Amino acid sequence: MNKDIPVYHYDGSTLTPVQVHPVKEFPLKLLVNERELATLVASPHDLRFLVAGFLRLQGFVTSLDDFVMFSVCNDFGIANIRIKGELPDKLRPILTSGCGTGVTFTLPGADAQSPVSRFDGLRITPETVFALMDDLARRAEQYRSHGGIHSAAVGDGEDLLLYAEDLGRHNTLDRIAGEALFKGIDLSGKVLVTSGRISSEMVAKASILGIGLMASRTSPTDMAVQLSEQLGITLIGYVRGRKFNVYTQPQRIILQ
Fold first, then answer.
1. 37, 99, 154, 193: the active-site residue
2. Are residues 147 and 89 in the same domain?
């Protein structure tokens, strides 16, 4: 439980004491096949989804059958995982631009050409984009009791299928990947909406999951735009006030 701390709110003229509780940072040491792989800094809820999704998007597992042992101990902050395959001898960790600074390794498929035809059947109206983003905001308000948390969700063009929140925006996609793995949900051709900035790492992870369209309330990075074009993903930013920018693959947007 987060503890309330004394904070003084400035309202334009005076400082007034208020009680707030800050976002909790939870470091989780990840052991895979008795090897310390990384420390994931995340929100403390649903850590099994985070761990499973992280390993899935790093290419270490593809299904639940790849796990021999799966143990997450919140009390000690350790996830002890055993998988069927062997880890590469040399792994090159890369610090990401996500809040709290995430870690990733070489993402499989991030550099591969993916044909645009993979998402030939994906068409979406602006109103659908707005509806999914509004639904994301409602979910966030329902679960959130304080600021500093990112949210993301995957929808099928009509409804949100999976929702995740975390202090790190990159972690939200790992959580979605992990929950989809546990629940057997195929994310191919689905739509991702997120509250945070879209980086090239998030585009690469979305491509691995087969997501065909990504939309954010804020901006993508230049590398995210380049990678989205290469991978055939429609990238939308600044979804605000019934307006947005389409950075790549605009042919999927159906205008009335």
1. 99
2. no
